[in-house]
Amino acid sequence: MAEIQDLKDILSNPRKIAIVGHPNPDGDCIGSMCGLCAYLEAAGHEVKMATPDRMPDNLSFITDYTKSKNFLYKESEPEKVSAMIKEADLVFCLDFNNLGRSKSLEHDLRQCGAPRILIDHHPFPALDEFAMAFSEPQRSSTCEYMYDILKELDKSNGTRLLGIECANALFCGILTDTNVFSNSVTPRTLSIASEMMDLGVDKECLQQKVTGGYRPERLSLLGYLLENSLVFNDRLKSAYMIIDSATKKRFDFRNGESEGFVNIPLSIKGVEFSALFSHNDDGGTRVSLRSRQYPVNKLAEKYFGGGGHLKAAGGRIDMETEKAGMYFEECLEKYIMDEKLFELNEDSK
Ligand code: 5GP
Ligand code: MN
Fold it and tell me: Which atom of ligand 1 is nearest to the CA of 306?
């Protein structure tokens, strides 16, 4: 694993820096990108940022914490993003663990001559794809880890560049990845939150911004799904919901509006696995998986071409969304048996 000294050395001269994140960027991805950007700008570097596709509207306020007005999307400005990565002296890859996961950015990232630096908290990082890798899967979020890295960097340089702008951005990612401090939280997560509040972060205000900025259509969609789509399976201890293309149209669905829905069925006693399947504009299906205790990253990897964390994972399948529920139950049954997770009650088959 890389050392802070390596990072200190590479940042010792002003650089042209590209920061990139993953598709469907979430609060942790955007927060870590903008937090790092704010820090690097304070240190005198020139920074640009890009993700494959758009961030949800309710999270776009996080970019206000940076001076850089360059937050580009590969889907809308492909040439500019390719040029930005090509011209960079240094590329930071945040909140994903291998180049393949960056999808439409993968080619640009592989082609670029500049060192790629990984900062991430997903298990099984592809270390050989990066010149320098900071990977700590026990961290609640990339933002939490970023805070400690930047704090160390300040200590080592004798500077105080980690200021309120940076902390505000990073706090947003901790809020979203921990589901407002309800999962993956360690003592260090709470110490960092406390340190950030000492720096001036207003927890209530950011929590309002992150969780209270949705359109009413989101609640209508949730009500509709709970009423019409939720399917429980007692034998498999699972539940799933489906957002098909008709439902998307009906509620004028926007990216990010189903955030958190997949966690809801886990509030039911006995439910160990929850899944959400959403129609993708490319005709396939996006998959979100959650569990109380069993590894769903392995399930995502084996059957849905994806991966993620032990209790929160995702992927994509080339299948009509309407069929995904049945496919999920078939896969889950095999998975439970192969991994010997628990005895399946044959009576209720
Ligand atoms: P979500 O269900 O919120 O979209 O994703 C939960 C987690 O699963 C993400 O934080 C990410 O770690 C992982 N994940 C989601 N989609 C994919 C995917 O397509 N590939 C991989 N490798 N991981 C994913
Ligand atoms: Mn994350």
Answer: 20
